[in-house]
Write a structure and sequence with these properties.
Elements (H helix, E strand, L loop, with lengths): L6 E4 L2 H6 L10 E4 L4 H20 L2 E8 L2 E8 L3 H19 L7 H7 L3 E3 L3 H16 L9 H6 L12 H7 L9 E8 L4 E8 L12 H15 L4 E6 L2 E6 L7 E5 L10 E5 L2 E7 L4 E3 L5 E3 L2 E2 L4 E2 L4 E8 L2 H14 L1 H11 L3 E6 L3 E4 L7 E3 L5 E4 L1
Parallel strand pairs: 1-2, 19-21
Antiparallel strand pairs: 3-4, 4-8, 5-7, 6-7, 8-9, 9-12, 10-11, 11-20, 12-17, 13-14, 15-16, 17-18, 18-19
Helix pairs in contact: 3-8, 8-9, 9-10
């Protein structure tokens, strides 16, 4: 049984019985598509059974909201509850640093300044350095300065609109990430030496690390799991999957790759351990304009328009969460041909590409790990 980004779907009683092995599976939430009251009571009973069995198996489950998404942690071991509590605190802390809307955050303060400002927290500086490094590496396909364009299309507030081409062209100069500089300043006092990082930017330029923040948080969670002596855990940070170690029985985790056309059943399944799986696609966050056209939330920084290149989704598999997060967006922006070329030039990650014409591409490292579950028109090993 594969789990589609940890959303376990139950449509009838038979499906529920298939979920009884739930303690050996990624878990976030059970969604019932039936309005039947007894069915809902049955789901609640299974949920309670899950909690009971989890406690008996010395594990801990925790769910909460952060970084504009739903986070779930399923951790095994005697320090499971401690690890989950520390992870939750750390993720909430990072959200306060990285948020574009919280006035106390580093990012908000930088965006509201005319020429930039100092990073108050080293974590934000680390993430900024990484994000701008990946922007260079991907030729701007990942663009941390795309925020003014995203804002113009209404994705930051939900007030969606189609800006005029004149408006887009007037905004694009403010999305040039190469004009943003991060300066490291060292100084010493009687007690210790310190380093500070200052971001300098043109007035009107705004940054957003949404394409890498969850991956960074996942990597921080892994360090906490290690420090707590945890050997088995599965985390879902809004679709960023962290498979830490193996399942308690020693087997690999089963992770589903979402089907862009039928969300109830995964398009493919992966068997993994000690890996991150991060997927970017335009099938969840989008709006339909007055012209009847679908506009997704992933933007091409060169045109200022939502990406339209024939891709439905990109999934990246890597030991590094922040790398997988950055690449899932960048490769989606690149399109199939350039994404394949990028992989051939680097080969330090694996990927799955799903196209609008219902083809699936996957890298050789996944050949023994992937099970294709959807009837694609072509299955292509890169």
């Amino acid at each position: 049984m594969y789990y589609n980004h940890f959303e376990i779907v139950a449509q009838d009683a038979n499906d529920i019985w298939n979920l009884l092995d739930i303690t050996n599976a990624p878990f976030a939430k059970i969604r019932n598509y039936s309005n039947n009251y007894s069915m809902k009571k049955f789901i609640l009973s299974i949920f309670c059974l899950f909690i009971f069995v989890s406690c008996a198996q010395n594990s801990d489950f925790l769910a909460f909201e952060s970084m504009n998404t739903f986070v779930t942690l399923k951790t095994y071991g005697k320090n499971a509850a401690k690890a989950n509590s520390r992870i939750k605190s750390r993720i909430l802390e990072l959200e306060d640093y990285f948020s574009t809307t919280k006035p106390q955050s580093d990012i908000y303060k930088i965006n509201m300044s005319d020429g930039g400002s100092e990073f108050s927290h080293t974590e934000t500086a680390r993430l900024a350095l990484y994000a701008f490094g990946m922007a260079e590496k991907t030729g701007g396909a990942l663009n941390p300065a795309i925020f003014p364009i995203v804002k113009a299309w209404g994705f930051t507030t939900g007030g969606y609109k189609i800006p005029s081409e004149k408006e887009i062209l007037s905004i694009l100069p403010y999305t040039d990430f190469s004009k943003i500089k991060i300066q490291e300043v060292s100084f010493e006092n009687a007690e210790k030496s310190e380093k500070k990082f200052i971001l300098q930017k043109p007035a009107g330029t705004m940054i957003d690390f949404g394409a890498v923040a969850k991956g960074f948080a996942g990597d921080e969670a892994v360090e906490i799991l290690k420090s707590c002596g945890i050997e088995s855990a599965i985390l879902d940070l809004g679709g960023n999957i962290v498979a830490f170690g193996a399942k308690p029985d020693g087997t690999e985790w089963n992770v589903g790759i979402k089907n862009p056309w039928n969300g109830e059943n995964p398009a493919a399944g992966l068997k993994i351990r000690n890996k991150n799986v991060v997927t970017s696609g335009g099938y969840e966050r989008f709006f339909v304009g007055a012209d009847g056209k679908k506009y997704i939330h992933i933007f091409d920084g060169k045109t200022g328009h939502p990406v339209e290149n024939g891709l439905e989704s990109v999934s990246v598999v890597s030991e590094s969460g922040v790398y997988a997060d950055a690449l899932s967006t960048a490769l989606f922006v690149m399109g199939t041909e350039k994404a394949v070329d990028f992989w051939k030039s680097n080969r330090d990650f694996d990927m799955i590409l799903i196209t609008k014409d219902r083809k699936i591409f996957y890298t050789p490292g996944l050949e023994q790990k992937i099970t294709v579950l959807y009837d694609f028109s072509e299955k292509i090993r890169i």
